[in-house]
């Protein structure tokens, strides 16, 4: 009798909970429908969904392409790890740093083909990169629609889908962490920003391009010293799996040293060394490193002089990141065609705060596709890179100038006007 009553009471309680949940779902559903009906939002979200499906379909269509880099490097690395397992991480068989090799090793544990693994890694970090863009857009604009649009636009940038879906490169891996670093700088989370930088740098040497930016944020936002210490620890922690497999620390530290021991001034990158004959490599290579270092130091000095007039520096710091991102690979020797990748993303992000950056963002995609022509399509670019470098110089100069002369402390231009119109309608 008592047992039957307790069962009945339990059923009543369950029915009550289910009823409350159903009411909540119906209430939220009505709110969602009401939201989507305002100003044609359901049409806008539907178009965004179509754009996202198109971005994924584009990657699916390009997935079968095998680039020269895949057949010469990535596939042999994958086969080495598939043959030797985790113990293969002890060998010096690849010129990429070990975090990317860990991802390849995880891929060998699946039944997937090596090409599918390489493209899947790129896809995952394309999405992580886009998620970072969404987070920044939401923080800046407080509009879910605009944040979604920004994330999908990032997926549809020509350099992004050509680099990952067609080429199978790893630039989205480190850039995803650079984008999240930008978000953490924007939201003043110093430890997370430095950790994101450490991971980016552990994946690709090109992550180092953004150290001057983070150091400037360290000064402006008064980051804690322990943030840098934690970043150093995180960087060395990425070596632990390889070291546990038997690889020595000097061998791991030598990966980036070996990467910088090239014999060419430039490799299909539209920078100043397109105008210098490679016969001058021994002299110009060393000089170019000091040139870049000096230019960044002067730029940092100018930023410090500009700092007192910027009361709210977070949006300005995004501009500084974009400026450093385009300046460093333009002045450094031994740059490859893909080394403006992260800069292109950051300049596009800056277009969220002021429309002034739209043209530089578009032009960076144009110069990137031209730079990719030889490696991806097997043909010389329709415009010689020594002329493309002139356009790139204009882009670099404009982005650097904007960070000095037009520091943003709030959303400006038509973005602000659009938000005012939306607020009026509401």
Q: Structural class of the helices, strands and pairings?
A: mainly alpha
Return the domain count: 2
Largest β-sheet summary: 2 strands, parallel
Order of helices and strands: HHHHHHHHHHHHHEHHEHHHH
Helix content range? over 70%
The DSSP helix count reads 19
Q: Could you give a quick summary of the protein structure above?
A:
The protein is 73% helix and 1% strand. It is mainly α and 426 residues long.
Which helices and strands, and how do they pair?
Blueprint: H1 2-37, H2 41-62, H3 68-84, H4 98-108, H5 114-141, H6 144-155, H7 158-166, H8 171-186, H9 190-203, H10 211-220, H11 225-237, H12 240-245, H13 249-259, E1 266-267, H14 281-306, H15 314-331, E2 335-336, H16 341-350, H17 358-377, H18 385-405, H19 414-425
Parallel strand pairs: 1-2
Helix pairs in contact: 1-2, 2-6, 2-7, 3-4, 4-5, 5-6, 5-7, 5-8, 7-17, 8-9, 8-16, 9-11, 10-15, 14-15, 15-16, 15-18, 16-17, 17-18
What does this entry look like structurally?
The chain is an all-alpha fold and 426 residues long. It folds into 2 domains: 43-261, no CATH class; 262-426, no CATH class. 73% of the residues lie in helices and 1% in strands. It contains 19 helices and 2 strands. The protein has helices at 2-37, 41-62, 68-84, 98-108, 114-141, 144-155, 158-166, 171-186, 190-203, 211-220, 225-237, 240-245, 249-259, 281-306, 314-331, 341-350, 358-377, 385-405, 414-425; strands spanning 266-267, 335-336. A two-stranded parallel sheet has the order 1-2. The longest helix has 36 residues, at 2-37. The termini are far apart. The model is unreliable at 1-7, 10-14 and 421-426 (pLDDT under 50).
């Amino acid at each position: 009798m008592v047992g039957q009553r307790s069962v009945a009471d339990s059923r009543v309680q369950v029915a009550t909970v289910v009823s409350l949940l159903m009411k909540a779902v119906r209430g939220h559903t009505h709110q969602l429908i009401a939201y989507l009906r305002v100003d044609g939002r359901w049409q806008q979200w539907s178009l965004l969904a179509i754009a996202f499906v198109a971005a994924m379909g584009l990657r699916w269509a390009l997935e079968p392409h095998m680039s020269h880099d895949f057949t010469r490097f990535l596939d042999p690395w994958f086969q080495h790890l598939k043959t030797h397992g985790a113990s293969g991480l002890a060998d010096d068989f690849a010129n990429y740093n070990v975090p990317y090799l860990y991802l390849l090793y995880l891929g060998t544990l699946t039944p997937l083909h090596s090409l599918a693994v390489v493209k899947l890694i790129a896809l995952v970090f394309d999405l992580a990169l886009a998620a970072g863009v969404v987070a920044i857009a939401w923080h800046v604009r407080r509009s879910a629609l605009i944040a979604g649009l920004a994330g999908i636009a990032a997926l549809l940038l020509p350099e992004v889908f050509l680099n990952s879906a067609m080429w199978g490169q790893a630039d989205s891996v480190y850039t995803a962490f650079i984008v999240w670093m930008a978000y953490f700088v924007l939201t003043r989370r110093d430890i997370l920003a430095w950790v994101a930088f450490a991971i980016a740098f552990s994946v690709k040497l090109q992550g180092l391009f953004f150290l001057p930016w983070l150091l400037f944020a360290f000064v402006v936002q008064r980051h804690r010293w322990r943030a840098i210490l934690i970043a150093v620890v995180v960087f060395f922690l990425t070596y632990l799996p390889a070291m546990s497999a038997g690889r020595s620390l000097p061998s791991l530290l030598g990966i980036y040293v070996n990467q910088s021991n090239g014999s060419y001034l430039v490799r299909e990158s539209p920078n100043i060394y397109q105008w210098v004959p490679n016969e001058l490599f021994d002299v110009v290579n060393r000089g170019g490193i000091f040139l870049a270092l000096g230019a960044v130091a002067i730029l940092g000095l100018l930023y410090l002089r500009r700092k007192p007039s910027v009361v709210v520096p977070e949006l300005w710091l995004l501009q500084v990141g974009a400026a450093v991102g385009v300046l460093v690979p333009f002045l450094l020797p031994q740059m490859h065609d893909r080394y403006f990748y992260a800069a292109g993303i950051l300049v596009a992000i800056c277009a969220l705060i002021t429309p002034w950056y739209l043209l530089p963002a578009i032009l960076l995609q144009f110069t990137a596709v031209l730079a990719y022509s030889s490696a991806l399509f097997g043909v010389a670019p329709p415009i010689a890179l020594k002329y493309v470098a002139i356009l790139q110089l204009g882009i670099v100069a404009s982005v650097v100038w904007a960070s000095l002369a037009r520091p943003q402390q709030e959303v400006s231009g038509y973005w602000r006007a659009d938000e005012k119109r939306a607020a009026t309608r509401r």
